[in-house]
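Supplementary Note 3. Input sequence used for the single-chain structure prediction.
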Amino acid sequence: MDQSQPLTPPLFVPLAFSIPAACKASGVGRSKIYEAIQSGALRARKNGAKNLILRADLERWLEKPSD
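The predicted structure, written as discrete structure tokens, is reproduced below.
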């Protein structure tokens, strides 16, 4: 039996999320994500017409206590 290749592919962990993907990954609604971006609590970057949220920024925002 050839054991050089794993049976399952490695887990893909994105470095950045679109708004819908950030909602799905965090379990937070779209309105709350946009509110956090507008208030400056969560940083979003533009890539053309798309808003991207870095995974590290999303994790940092989720770890902060809510008001």
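The CA atoms of residues 4 and 27 lie 37 Å apart. The radius of gyration is 16 Å.
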